[in-house]
Design brief:
The chain has 7 helices and 5 strands, in the order ββααββααβααα. With 217 residues, the protein is an alpha/beta fold. α3 (111-121) packs across α4.
Length: 217
């Protein structure tokens, strides 16, 4: 593995056939960037996806039975799909039996940088924010360690620093296609606040056709 690589892998990922990707991490920790990159590769991230944070409304604060129903519906519609929610480790165990061929994608961010971002949005004190970030990261790691499924651990900082290499690594692990003629990956990954997914889609590509090419529908 090159020193510039942004990833650590656990298990062998599937690159063909049905599978589900769950993108999680910590709040203000880079999951929106990774979710957007996956959408740029054509991955469907659930119904009613927010254009800026890449989260499906169906997996943000919904009761477990409703999320199970959504998973079953999406399994029928899409052979390959997933969802992004930073705190998914808080509930994904209760959904596990419904998830088809789960693949975990966990995004890590430097705890100090993450704490500064958290305090801008949710002021709790800098040291307390670091503490909360590290506790969440420990929980996320435990999920990857305990579940016998393919897992990808991503360094947000290294991904942002080596954009093209990261996009290639992510495409290789998922089996998805990173087509720069359809989506501006470099622009979308540039460091700034939330950005709209549509602004980086090129002509003929957008949310309405940002879906897996192997739809089961």
């Amino acid at each position: 593995m090159e020193r510039s690589s942004a990833i650590i892998t656990k298990g062998k990922s599937l690159k063909e056939g049905p599978r589900t990707y769950i993108v999680y991490g910590v709040m203000r920790g880079g999951t929106s960037m990774v979710g957007g990159v996956l959408r740029g590769m054509g991955l469907h991230l659930g119904p009613d996806v927010d254009s800026q944070n890449q989260e499906s409304a169906a997996f943000a604060g919904k009761p477990i039975p409703e999320m199970r129903k959504t998973i079953e519906e999406q399994n029928e519609l899409h052979e390959i799909w997933g969802w992004k929610f930073p705190q998914a480790a808080n509930y994904v165990d209760r959904l596990w039996g419904t998830i088809r061929k789960p693949h975990l994608i966990c995004v890590y961010r430097d705890a100090v940088s993450n704490a500064r971002g958290l305090n801008r949005w949710h002021p709790v004190g800098e040291l307390q924010a670091i503490h909360e970030s590290l506790l969440a990261q420990q929980k996320n790691l435990a999920l990857s360690l305990m579940r016998g499924c393919p897992s990808l651990l991503i360094s947000y900082e290294k991904a942002a620093r080596n954009k093209e290499q990261f996009v290639e690594e992510l495409a290789d692990w998922t089996g998805l296609e990173a087509n720069y003629e359809k989506f501006d990956f470099d622009g979308f990954m540039s460091e700034q606040s939330y950005k709209s997914f549509e602004d980086y889609c090129k002509e003929g590509f957008g949310p309405e056709n940002s879906s897996d090419a192997n739809s089961a529908a």
